[in-house]
Amino acid sequence: MSHANQSLKQNRALLRKANYRKLKNLYLQHSAKLELEFKEVSPKELAGIKNKIRLQHKQNARKELVFTLVAIILAALFFVLLYTRFIE
What we know:
By secondary structure, the chain is mostly helical. Helices cover 83% and strands 0% of the residues.
């Protein structure tokens, strides 16, 4: 508990300092004006990138479908095994 109180005291001391407020305001002013610059790509390269992304998506969807089907089959086999073992 004493550590929490000490931390609160230190935080209050930081807030009282004018330098901290100035730095915070300066940071907030400059971070709002941040502009991103993206690499320029030709339409041909952009089409290639899009095709690559589409291919990856198809592969991921296929893997997910196979995994889901295997999980359903294993669950069904498990329940059939339980049913035949304990009911009959």
